[in-house]
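Person: Please work through this fold.
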Amino acid sequence: MKASVLLSRGTAPSALVEAELDDPRPHEVLVRIEAVGVCHTDLATRKALGDRPAVLGHEGCGVVQRLGSEVAGLEVGDRVVLSFAHCGRCAQCRSGHPAYCALATTLNNSGRRPDGTPTIRVDGAPVFGSFFGQSSFATAALVDARSCVPVGDVPPWVAAPLGCGFLTGAGSVLNVLRPGPGDRLLVVGAGAVGTAAVLTALSEGVEVVVAEPVAARRDLATGFGALAVASLDDPLPSVTHALDTTGRPELLTRALALLQPRGTLAVVGLGPARAEIDVRDLMLRGLQLRGCVEGDAEPSQLVPELIGRYEKGRLPLDELVTTYGLGEFDRAVAEQRAGRALKAVLLPGS
């Protein structure tokens, strides 16, 4: 691997360094990265690792360069989106819910292969890699073939966030909440995940209400056809469905209060571990509170569907993306946090 983004020392500036990437094992694929999205999970993991050096990134898109000896269904030269790792064998994987794989933590967050071997070295020393089975803040990534979804000629900077952020937002609508025409969806937080959910719901003919404090994000949602307010304390209509992308306990409570009887709230944002829920109200009004990981999606099915909607003009995902060079990680993060970029995507070739 010619270069990678090395994240270390908590919130210290990132650095572009030379790194060594292992050869593919029989079930693995070597992918030249063309684009990789920046996600909140990358930033949270970077902070949690403290001084431990790491190559993160889990929304990669690139071109297959080499195939392991046992890989089928992929060819050198294929453009692929890289999504989360899953075993493909446990009950959750076999039933079409790989985001809840029994080995999810080991495969995505251990920093190494399941057998404990590293995939990335810097100056000869192993570093935290295999993040979400890829570590794609780099010019190349080593990935299990199961995580590769062929995407054809779609622009890589549009396709990359379908590995996680856009997949989560769209999947939460299509797979979990499933609103239809005549329903009204509340989206709390209009970052990349929330706005992908907004676009998906609108493409389904659903009325959408957005609560988002950043004015530029409200304007974007309004331009797409949603009603946008700054806070859940603003006057709002009742809703049939709600999606929380913030993980803030007080917002969960407010969103539940806005639901009509038999309404559903799905939670995709990681926040404090505890929230105060009125269980009696939940029961008496027949409400549902659902957790949702990665949009409860089978990437090999949902990613092509979302790309099809994009190509037909029903899902203008390109309007959510701002691109940066691979060495501009810190600038991309700063502009995303400031609300100047909705979805930052790094381009290793820039």
In short: DSSP finds eleven helices and 18 strands in the chain. The longest strand covers residues 28-37. The longest helix spans residues 165-177. The CA atoms of residues 80 and 149 lie 5 Å apart.
